[in-house]
Batch of 3 targets.
Target 1
Amino acid sequence: MRTLGEIGFSCIFASGYVVCFNTMPSWLPEELLKRFAPYLLMFLCLCAACDAADPVEPQETVTPGVTDTTVRVGSSLALTGHAGYLGTQTLRGAMSYIRAVNEAGGVHGRTIEVVAADDSYDPPKCLANTQKFIIDGDVFALFSYVGTPTTVKIMPMLEEARIPLLGVFTGANALRDPFNRYIINIRASYYQETEAAVRHLVRDLGISRIAVFYQFDAYGFDGLVGTELALKRFGLEPVARGSYIRGTQDVEEGLDRIKASGARAVVMVGTYGACARFIQLASAEEFTPVFYNVSFVGAEELARLVSSASGATVVVSQVVPAPVAEVTNESALDYVRLLARYYPGETPSFVGMEGYLNARILVEGLLRAGRELTREGFIRAIESVTDYPLGSGLDISFGPSDHQGLDSIYFTRLRGGRIEPLDDWKGLLPGAGGDGS
């Protein structure tokens, strides 16, 4: 008969640790080993069983920001400062539709609460607001952020928190590539805007001397790269590059560099204040290229600020239909109607129209996600949206690998102090379509 000291055994834990007794300790009395060995074996087996179980993450029984009667979303955007017009218009456009939905009973019995925090278009403030939303704010999703430098700052937090961000007033490529399933873009990108504009400038107007004026940050760099890529397709590159610091209107150095290049068109990637000052100073110096602005500039506010330079040729690309009563797009008409109802006296704007469309898709996603609302279920619901009509000539689609809903680009021009549609590029300049001057 073999003694316990001659019986070897081992327990291998799932984590990879091994407790092994090939030989029982010789210094322990045989009788003591016989008495306690069964208990030791039982203890080791229990430990092994516990360790073998896969670690289970705690399951959320309640989705953050969701109650029986409400669903809360957080929005960090500029409500004051040099981009305050953009954030205010975005929020009012979104709230025009959300207030109407809430008055009709909400979505699946829940009203939508938007917690808006002012970040003044300042990245650290946006980061702080978002951290508060996620950690303390009890929000279901993030919604209608404004700006590239602010939004790219919070991107690492999205996947970590597994929280969706729907509707961002920026066309930055960084929010699209590489693909991030927690970012849901409604609008077209800056690359698409600048590509379409450069194509018209070169083909329709015969202009090859094109410069870029940009805000010296992630927003401006994105527009600069988009323009360079578009020009490269025609074998061109910018004849000059001028920049300014975000939050300032120090445009003189950039203007001097661009004016000296003899540029016949300037792609402008900035905010309304700086771009308006550039155009005013250029006009005063009789520098008269085509001033093309991307959508973020805020066309209506730009038009108001450059009225003293009304003779300048100013073009702005847009990513939503014109929000005027004369258009036939039903969403645009609905936005104009609801804005007048909830914000009497407020002038409709392209920025506000974009906020309205953000809210339309938020509501559609909540409807499709159902009463048992989760963040992952909401993302899947958005991805199920295919050819969803937003009015005549405007459908929106998403997919599991496509989180940008719209691709349309529209062009407008400044004339008589007002922004109006631009349909005929060749009629924009006398003698257009020349030899590339």
Note: The two ends are 105 Å apart (CA to CA).
Target 2
Amino acid sequence: MFSFILYKHLTLILSLILLGGITMLSATSIYDFTMLSLDGKAVKLDSYKGKVLLIVNTASKCGFTKQYDGLQELYELYKNDGLVILGFPANNFLHQEPGSNQEILNFCRLSYGVTFPMFEKISVAGKDIHPLYKYLTDKKANPKFGGKISWNFNKFLISKEGRIINRFGSATVPFDKHVINAIEEALK
């Protein structure tokens, strides 16, 4: 019985490591994480090496939800140049993302025609913050752009080398001139 319990715990630990549950302290870039897509597939973020990434925490019932339109438009405009937008639904702010992963996927596709990669719902703030967001917001590792997520639709711009090179708040729309300038500079 003891060996079975030990086996189950070791299996759980290994699964967490393989699915991005590594500790923030062991992560040296976003490429150290593996995340689950909304349809349940494991995606190693190192598969995006050489691409410019815009990582966004999203929600379906927020005043900023209409930014899905701009994010999709931005993705279509720059994807052939190497931009990938990664959406991470989160229910941290006033329960504005209550749906299941399947409901979120359906909502994004049907309501906004989202084709950029969307990932399973995670926590982006608080005691249960996902290690990816713990890494992105860490002030010691990322003094220039670190800090807590303030609301839905915060945006992190990641260089082709996997470094955080800019951050934009919720009120900054995808086609804001600062976002466009930063993306175009990163794509050079």
Note: The chain has one domain: 2-187.
Target 3
Amino acid sequence: MSFWAAMAGGFVGTLVLTTCLRAGSELGLTRMDLPFLLGTAFSADRTRAKAVGYGLHFVAGQAFAAVYYAVFVAIDESSWWLGGAFGLVHGLFAGTALVSTLLPLVHPRMGSAQSAANDSPLLEPPGFMMLNYGNSTPGLTVIAHVIYGAIVGGFVSLSA
């Protein structure tokens, strides 16, 4: 197993995941734009926020690939299907705890259930599994993360 294979898989996986989510948005399956959500935590300028968000999303993709690699090493096994299983857990975590619960607590421009009615946040709160961004959002998000995990797992297993 190679750490660098995990990093390469993380890059390719993040590229595919981001493309799937962007395509879902363009096809009207979701209103979620994950890089925009991340970027607006650092800038109110919409264009700058997207650029920053894409950078942050790729950094997060590398960080998650490193975590996947550490688990593969700890259990002394890697495969595309095991990576896909990690991706399933990752996607569920992203939709429940990370984006819908933790992000609104620290995001300066995102509304939350605790926001006052006279507040005008730049972003609406995502809600459970990001359902506020469309009924297809949870499925699309989880599937994209499963694909990401399968790619990372595949890259790592090919390097073994």
Note: The mean pLDDT is 90.
